Amino acid sequence: VDKQVVIPVGGMTCASCSAAIERALKKVSGVKNVSVNLATERASITYDPDAVRLSEIKQAITNAGYRPLAIE
Ligand code: 9UX
Questions:
Q1: Staple partner for 18: which of 30, 36, 41, 60, CB 3.0–4.6 Å?
Q2: Which of 16, 18, 23, 61 has most ligand 1 atoms within 8 Å of CB, for mutation?
Q3: Which residues, listed in sequence order, are joined to residue 7 by a DSSP beta bridge?
Q4: pTM > 0.90: yes or no
Q5: End-to-end CA distance of the chain, in Å?
Q6: In this predicted structure, what is the pLDDT of residue 72?
Q7: Confidence grade of residue 71 (pLDDT, cut at 50, 70, 90)
Q8: Does residue 17 line the site of ligand 1, with CB under 6 A?
Q9: Cα dihedral sign, 51-55-58-59
Q10: What is the pLDDT of residue 37?
Q11: What ipTM is given for this predicted complex?
Q12: DSSP designation for 28
């Protein structure tokens, strides 16, 4: 069963930032769908928890140069 999570992301300034995060996360195996909202500074992610851990998703955001923040 897929899970959905909304992760606040810091460090996004322009639309290319949000596009870069979407691109990076879509490359992660187990991530099914990604939508990053620049205005609200949140990434909505659907993923298969049997294939990828949330910590790996957050690491991919960090590796792309942005800051995943605590989930509310
Ligand atoms: Mo826009 Mo974001 O010029 O890292 S791509 S600020």
A1: 36
A2: 16
A3: 43
A4: yes
A5: 22
A6: 59
A7: confident
A8: yes
A9: negative
A10: 98
A11: 0.92
A12: S
Residue corresponding to tokens 């909505």:
44
pLDDT tens readout for residues 9-62: 999 999 999 999 999 999 999 999 999 999 999 999 999 999 999 999 999 999
Nearest-angstrom CA–CA distance, 38 and 22: 11
The Cα 2–Cα 16 span in angstroms is: 27
Write down all domains in the chain, each with its CATH number in brackets: 3-68 (3.30.70.100)
H-only helix segments in 1-72:
15-26, 54-63
- C-alpha distances in Å from residue 13, one per residue of 24, 47, 66: 17, 25, 10
Atom 1 (ligand 1): residue with closest C-alpha? 14
Q: What is the number of the ligand 1 atom nearest to the C-alpha of 11?
A: 4
Strand pairing partners for 63? none
Q: Is 45 helix (H, G, I), strand (E, B) or coil?
A: strand
